[in-house]
Specification:
The complex is a heterotrimer of chains A (about 500), B (about 475) and C (about 160).
Chain A lengths: L4 H18 L5 H25 L8 E9 L4 E7 L3 H18 L7 H20 L3 H10 L1 H11 L4 H30 L4 H7 L6 H18 L8 H8 L2 H26 L1 H6 L1 H20 L4 H25 L5 H39 L10 H4 L1 H15 L5 H16 L1 H27 L15 H19 L2 H17 L1
Antiparallel strand pairs in A: 1-2
Chain B lengths: L4 H4 L5 H20 L5 H21 L5 E2 L4 E2 L2 H27 L5 H19 L3 H19 L6 H32 L4 H11 L5 H18 L7 H8 L2 H26 L4 H24 L4 H21 L5 H25 L15 H4 L1 H15 L5 H15 L3 H27 L13 H19 L2 H12 L4
Antiparallel strand pairs in B: 1-2
Helix pairs in contact in B: 2-3, 2-5, 3-4, 3-5, 4-5, 4-11, 4-14, 4-19, 4-20, 5-6, 5-11, 6-7, 6-11, 7-8, 7-9, 7-10, 9-11, 9-12, 10-11, 10-13, 11-13, 11-14, 12-13, 12-18, 13-14, 13-17, 13-18, 14-16, 14-17, 14-19, 14-20, 16-18, 16-19, 17-18, 17-19
Chain C lengths: L2 H22 L3 H21 L3 H25 L15 H21 L13 H10 L3 H26 L1
Helix pairs in contact in C: 1-2, 2-3
Classes of the chains: A mainly alpha (about 500), B mainly alpha (about 475), C mainly alpha (about 160).
């Protein structure tokens, strides 16, 4: 393609957000439709990229490169490979769905939709950047709109949650920034791929370790990996529904994406050396996240903690690949399988947890409570909701035939071969998550006698069904036939594994 | 032989002459024809600054001295002079509507701003410690008077007195330091002083050590570095807000200009000592400034403590000596736009007759005054160091210089401090957008001049953040041309 | 000990004594008188250093003008001539520490410095040299100092005028 498809995709939402701001606020319907229409442009372009990405050649495609700040060798450098393409598509998809779902927002809709579009630019930018400076700019930029989305449109403790979210992420990012400055001074380049080739600090192991942990901290807080997860429940619970969807669906992926795109290729030796530590953290995230989720009675909080659990699988897959870094082709298959699983899990978690948060929003807007003890017997009362919730929950707990199963299977298949003890401990998490999803979500909400309070509850309306339909589609289709997405991911994963 | 004016070559001193001359012209016209509004004085001040700016930009950098070696027309001096002139011009714009609103519109205000700027220009470009000192005094005394400008106001008077006493104290330190350095080198000319110190090779000269320590204490007072900061919050809060805005930027630019020149030209052989001393001050300044800022509930005072912390960040690059000079310069340029902009918003929103702007007054303004609030958010994000603002590039450059010079631990302390500062900067944003006002503030319409100033500041913050390349190159080339 | 040294010690002692008296005497008027003593002694030291012009200026400006202004100020202000004022406040330990630190720095610097003797005779007819210096190498500080004085004057006017209104 000779036109800058990535740039157009990247800046359309930014321009859109300015357009939305310029529209009169007396016409909320108009600006909502305009925002939605604008968000279709990156969505269509993302689909175009998905289908026209040349799987035969692989590598970085649709590359755009231009000097930006030549004084410090910074470039405007975009490109996508098999790992970024699914993430870009996920971002575009979830943003459009979130905007559509958010038509119910009455409070200051103009600012809300403008911030949402700005957020889309930031998130897309992170997944497309191949220059570390640019990456960092978008990384930090994603904080600001989300901060406002939580802080203005959030729940009762929104101020606290917004500041906590911002500061936690900022701590990680500035640690990362220092490491990146040092890496730039060492290599003379901000180019992420170039840095991976040059392997900074390969002679100074102390410095390498410090830089590794600094960058790790930046990403680990975002993922989040235990013990850096404490911002997550607050932010998720207080954020407005669509904000939670984006937060869980995409923002957490930024951290995981950084682990795979940056940390693993640039510091393979360090990652291997510290794989046991990271593995322990991943295993704790999985088991602890599941246990805490099980103890929740607030549906939204439960799903928030389930994210800690599910993102733990991603970390487990990455750790498995890192643990065998440099051990040659013998382990390459298992490494590739684990990493494939990790990337696919990112996609699946985005789709599934996104859907779960939408569903929480659906029920909360009707019942004005998320207390699991207050529900019960809704299955017969609101059949569409019950059906969609059941499918999504089953996908989340990894039922074969639905998307979650494939990725978790791949992660464990790789991890068992490479880091068996962690994999064994982590498999506990699967059992526990099955338990809480079935017991708490299915049983407490849908089954049992109907609470009289909900006798007049209405089922999902068309807007909500349309929002969820694409997500259900992907859960089923990639559960039954994951080849189209795995082909794409595998390309890039094999390249990374080969370079370790 | 008697020197003549042609030998002195006044041509190169046009910036200083234009600025001080415009100030005197204002005094003269005001005395002879003073009637009605004093707007014309502001315009005249802007004109004088514009002439100076044009002269600075046009003449460019050359490593030569004028006025018989007293004034250096090198890149370093010209660049800092440029930042100072821009800051002064913005301060004039910011003050115009404010002074009228507060019924203190008088021509002397602008004259004093110009005199202060002339003093600062002398500091930035002087190649002679005596000239640096006199420039410093001119700047300081103008600021003492400006602090007391709202004479009916007790806080303003108290601020001025406090500033005067501590400022005089600091000057004594500075002067004593000059005397000791003169004793060590036998000259007051910076370049010759540097040569003498290098040639003597006696870095163990106790006079040199003593002089350096005393000068750093003197400059430390001017820059409000911890532990010499105790005057700053009271003075910043008590002085008229437009003066605070000017003071928080101009005196920092001028003092850092002199400090950088001293470090690069004179004290390079003494780098281990100066760097250690400055590093200690930087850590104290950042940390104490930020921690005290956390406890504030009033915007002007918060910005005072934040200015202290900001000086600490800049010091981090000054520690790196020659490597950090460009970073100091670039950061100050960005800081001028950011801090002046933030104070301009404070001034637009504070109640008439009252310098304070309590946090509670901000509630709900995010939506009642969307443009101004957006501008303030932008300035605060820039002070935090968020990407796409000049604050980010500036901090990157500052801390990068420290890492490059081997001061990694100092950069780490600075970065941690940035995170702490994010908390109090963001709190203002939270209050503006996320709280409803209990008693809505009666806001005045901001005047045109203030609007222009805000727009310029915001544009500066964004442009320098988005395409910093030109300014970074400029800073780097400027400091490369140093008379030494 | 030469005569010069003896005179120096005498003058130096008087200067220190005057300074001490200035900060410790409880009566403001007496303080001012002690200051005059210190300023006079310093003028004497200038004479000793063969800087006669400087000594004359010191007496004219500091003793003649500044000190007299201060005395007038004290006498024209009601109720402070006879009254003893506090010479200490709560922060005196801190001030003592700072002063001691400064003294230590200066003492070390001055005692340990290798003071070289000037290789040339002191300039004769200091006034002409001073004039040339002010119009030559020190033209810049000289000119800026005039702005400085203007600022001080304007400032005094602003503050005084407003106080009367």
């Amino acid at each position: 393609m000779d036109w800058p498809v990535l740039s157009i995709m990247l800046f359309t939402p930014l321009v859109g957000s300015v357009i939305v701001l310029a529209l009169p606020k007396e016409k909320p319907a108009l600006l909502k439709w305009v925002a939605l229409a604008i968000s279709f442009i990156p969505l269509i372009l993302a689909a175009l990229v998905w289908f026209s990405y040349d799987r035969g050649t692989g590598g970085m495609q649709f590359v755009e490169r231009a000097a930006w700040i030549s004084a410090i060798n910074v470039h405007y450098y975009l490109g996508v490979d098999g790992i970024s393409v699914p993430m870009v598509c996920l971002t575009a998809l979830l943003t459009t769905l979130s905007l559509f779902y958010s038509f119910i927002i009455d409070q200051r809709p103009k600012e809300y939709f403008a911030f949402f579009l700005l957020l889309e630019t930031a998130m897309l930018g992170v997944f497309m950047s191949l220059d570390f400076f640019l990456f960092y700019v978008f990384w930090e930029l994603s904080l600001v709109p989300m901060y406002f989305l939580i802080g203005i449109w959030g729940g009762p403790r929104r101020e606290y949650a917004a500041i906590k979210f911002f500061l936690y992420t900022l701590v990680g990012s500035v640690a990362m920034l220092l490491a990146v400055i040092a890496m730039y001074l060492e290599t003379g380049s901000w180019d992420i791929l170039e840095m991976a080739r040059l392997q900074p600090f390969s002679t100074n192991l102390t410095l390498a370790a410090v830089a590794f942990w600094a960058v790790f901290l930046g990403f680990a807080i975002k993922v989040p990996v235990f013990p850096f997860h404490t911002w997550l429940p607050d932010a998720h619970v207080e954020a407005p529904t669509a904000g939670s969807v984006i937060l869980a669906g995409i923002l957490l992926k930024l951290g995981a994406y950084g682990m795979i795109r940056i940390l693993l290729p640039i510091f393979p030796a360090m990652f291997r050396q510290f794989a046991p530590v990271v593995g322990i953290l991943a295993a704790i995230s999985i088991v602890y996240g599941a246990l805490v989720a099980m103890s929740q009675w607030d549906l939204k909080k439960l799903i928030a903690y389930s994210s800690v659990n599910h993102m733990g699988y991603v970390m487990l897959g990455v750790t498995a690949a890192a643990a065998a870094a440099g051990s040659g082709p013998a382990a390459a298959d298992s490494q590739a399988i684990a990493l494939n699983g990790a990337v696919l899990q990112m996609w699946n978690h985005g789709i599934i947890t996104g859907a779960l948060f939408f569903l929480v929003g659906v029920i909360y807007e009707r019942a004005h409570t998320r207390d699991l003890k207050a529900f019960g017997g809704l299955g017969a009362k609101v059949p569409t909701f019950a059906g969609i919730l059941t499918v999504t929950t089953f996908a989340s707990l990894g039922l074969p035939g639905l998307a979650g199963f494939v990725s978790e299977f791949l992660v464990f298949r790789g991890a068992f071969a490479l880091i068996r003890p962690f994999a064994i401990v982590s498999s506990l998490g699967i059992v526990i998550s099955a338990a809480y999803l079935l017991w708490k979500v299915i049983q407490h909400v849908l089954l049992g006698p109907l609470n009289e309070r909900w006798a007049r509850l209405t089922d999902m309306n068309r807007r909500e069904v349309i929002t969820l339909a694409p997500l259900i589609f992907f859960m089923v289709i990639f559960g039954l036939y994951p080849a189209p997405i795995l082909d794409l991911i595998n390309q890039a994963v094999v390249t990374i594994v080969g370079s370790l | 032989m008697l020197p003549t004016l042609s030998v002195l070559n006044l041509n190169g001193a046009v910036p200083q002459i234009a600025v001080a001359g415009a100030g005197m012209l204002i005094m003269l016209i005001d005395a002879l024809f003073h009637r009605g509004s004093r707007r014309w004085a502001a315009y005249l001040a802007l004109l004088g600054l514009a002439v100076a700016l044009a002269r600075v930009v046009e003449s460019g950098a050359s490593a030569e001295t004028i006025l018989d070696g007293a004034l250096a027309r090198d890149g370093l001096g010209m660049a800092f002079a440029l930042v100072l002139i821009v800051a002064a011009a913005l301060s004039v714009l910011v003050a115009m509507d404010y002074l009228r609103r507060e019924e203190h519109e008088r021509a002397e205000y602008y004259a004093l701003i110009l005199f202060a700027t002339a003093g600062g220009l002398a500091m930035a470009m002087a190649n002679d410690l005596v000239a640096v000192f006199i420039g410093l005094e001119t700047l300081s005394i103008s600021l003492y008077v400006l602090s007391a400008f709202f004479t009916g106001d007790a806080a303003s008077r108290e601020a001025a007195l406090k500033y005067l006493l501590l400022g005089a104290f600091a000057s004594a330190f500075f002067l004593y330091g000059i005397a000791l350095l003169y004793g060590a080198s036998g000259t007051t000319r910076l370049v010759e002083m540097g040569t003498a110190i290098r040639l003597a090779g006696t870095q163990a000269d106790p006079l040199l050590w003593g002089g350096v320590a005393l000068i750093i204490v003197g400059v430390g007072f001017k820059l409000a570095l911890v532990p010499f900061h105790s005057w700053a919050p009271d003075v910043y809060q008590g002085a008229p807000t437009s003066v605070t805005a000017f003071m928080s930027v101009a005196s920092k630019v001028a003092a850092f200009a002199a400090l950088v020149r001293l470090l690069v030209v004179v004290l390079a052989p003494a780098a281990p000592l100066t760097s250690a001393l400055l590093a200690l001050l930087a850590v104290l300044t950042m940390t104490v400034g930020n921690i005290l800022a956390l406890a504030q509930d009033e915007v002007k005072r918060l910005l005072a403590y934040s200015s202290i912390a900001q000086a600490g960040y800049i010091l981090v690059a000054a520690v790196a000596g020659e490597v950090g000079a460009a970073a100091v310069l670039f950061y100050l340029l960005g800081y001028a736009f950011t801090n002046l902009g933030a104070f301009a918003v404070v001034l637009a929103w504070s109640r008439r007759g009252e310098g304070r702007l309590p946090f509670s007054d901000l509630a709900g303004l995010g939506f009642r005054r969307p443009w101004t609030a957006a501008a303030l958010s932008l300035f605060l994000l820039s002070l935090t160091g968020m990407p796409l603002t000049v604050g980010f590039v500036g901090k990157l450059y500052l801390f990068g210089a420290a890492v490059q010079a081997g001061w990694t631990w100092l950069a780490i302390v600075a970065v941690l401090n940035s995170v702490v500062s994010a908390f109090y900067y963001l709190r203002l944003v939270v209050i503006m957008y996320m709280r409803e006002a209990e008693m809505p503030l009666a806001l005045q319409r901001a005047g045109l001049a203030l609007g222009v100033a805000l727009a310029v500041c915001a544009a500066g913050v964004i442009l320098l953040g988005l395409v910093p390349g030109v300014a970074l190159d400029w800073a780097r080339q400027a400091v490369a041309v140093v008379l030494s | 000990m030469s005569l010069t040294q003896a005179v120096f010690i005498l003058l130096g002692g008087m200067a220190v004594l005057g300074a001490l008296g200035m900060v410790t005497l409880r009566n403001l008027f007496h303080s001012a008188l002690a200051m005059i003593l210190a300023l006079f002694s310093i003028a004497g030291i200038y004479v000793l250093l063969e800087a006669e012009f400087l000594a004359v200026v010191q007496v004219l400006v500091y003793v003649g003008a500044i000190a007299m202004l201060i005395l007038f100020g004290i006498m024209l202000t009601r109720d402070i001539v006879g009254r003893a004022s506090a010479v200490r406040n709560r922060q005196w330990p801190l001030a003592l520490a700072v002063s001691a630190g400064l003294l230590a720095v200066l003492a070390v610097a001055l005692v340990r410095a290798a003071w070289p003797l000037a290789t040339y005779a002191p300039a004769q007819g200091g006034v002409a040299d001073l004039g040339l210096a002010l119009m030559g190498p020190y033209a810049l500080p000289f000119e800026v100092a005039s702005v400085l004085l203007l600022v001080a004057m304007v400032g005094a006017l602003i503050i005084a005028r407003e106080a009367r209104e």
